[in-house]
């Protein structure tokens, strides 16, 4: 099932239909709850493979020294740290997240790792970026776009802030293709993962939402079309781990 029709006053929050104006607050509540166990959450949802996927994202980005990266929904710093390591510290990252708790986790991690320079931590909304037009070299978003209320608006904002020749990369859970893998993944996601989240993170409901939000996200072909509509050129995607996730790429030409 794809994202809800933008002409409607409602949208999906997992499998629930909610007023559009309510979704951001509901999503914020989920990530307030899971911020402290975010890495564990991704390990549970991906079988630990999310770390390899994020490295693959940076490899495909091919960062260059001196670049300015905007990493959206990147509060814990995972992508920002990988980017700065790839450019030997000679770069700048603006980490933007709508959730204060996630940003706090990332800032604490940065301090613990001695990363005191090169990162700006910004509270903001992907649908209304607090950056000027044509101001960043690259835009990344990992496991965040499916939680945005108005995805087409967020994509237009990504296009707006990228410099001509700038690169957009999105890592997101996707639709599993192989029937046997899909059957196992559905069983794990719907039957086991919320129970594990309830035991480990004391929050079954948030994990249930996260599983449902994956199923509501457009498939890889449909999301690629959304990128084209937003103005991006040379749109491509790579399926990862049998389609459990996908990497999407586009350029502001």
Overview of this structure, please?
This protein has helices at 20-34, 38-46, 50-61, 78-86, 100-112, 151-161, 179-200, 204-216, 220-229, and strands at residues 10-13, 16-19, 68-72, 92-97, 119-123, 136-142, 162-173, 233-240, 245-251. The chain has 253 residues and is α/β, with parallel strands linked by helices. The chain has a domain at 47-171 and 221-251: Rossmann fold, CATH 3.40.50. The radius of gyration is 17 Å and the shape is globular. Residues 1-5 have low confidence and may be disordered.
Brief overview, please?
The protein has helices at 20-34, 38-46, 50-61, 78-86, 100-112, 151-161, 179-200, 204-216, 220-229, and strands at 10-13, 16-19, 68-72, 92-97, 119-123, 136-142, 162-173, 233-240, 245-251. It is of the alpha/beta class. The protein is globular, with a radius of gyration of 17 Å.
């Amino acid at each position: 099932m794809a994202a809800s029709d933008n002409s409607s006053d409602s949208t999906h929050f997992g499998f629930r239909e909610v007023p559009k104006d309510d979704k951001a607050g509901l999503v914020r509540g989920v990530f307030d709850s899971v911020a402290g166990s975010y890495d564990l959450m991704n390990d549970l949802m991906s079988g630990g493979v999310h770390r390899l996927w994020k490295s693959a994202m940076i490899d495909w980005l091919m960062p260059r020294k001196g670049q300015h990266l905007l990493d959206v929904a990147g509060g814990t710093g995972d992508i920002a740290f990988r980017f700065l390591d790839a450019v030997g510290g000679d770069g700048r990252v603006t980490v933007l997240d709508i959730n204060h708790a996630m940003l706090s986790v990332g800032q604490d991690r940065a301090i613990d790792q001695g990363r005191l320079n090169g990162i700006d931590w910004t509270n903001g909304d992907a649908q209304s970026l607090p950056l000027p037009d044509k101001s960043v070299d690259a835009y990344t978003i990992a496991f965040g776009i499916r939680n945005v209320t108005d995805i087409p608006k967020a994509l237009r904002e990504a296009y707006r802030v990228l410099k001509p020749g700038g690169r957009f990369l999105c890592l997101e859970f996707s639709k599993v293709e192989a029937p046997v893998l899909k059957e196992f993944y559905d069983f794990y996601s719907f039957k086991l993962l919320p129970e594990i989240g309830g035991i480990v993170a004391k929050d079954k409901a948030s994990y249930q939402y996260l599983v449902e939000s994956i199923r509501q996200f457009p498939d890889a072909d449909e999301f690629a079309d959304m990128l084209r509509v937003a103005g991006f050129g040379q749109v491509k995607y790579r399926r990862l781990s049998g389609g459990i996730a996908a990497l999407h790429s586009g350029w502001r030409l």
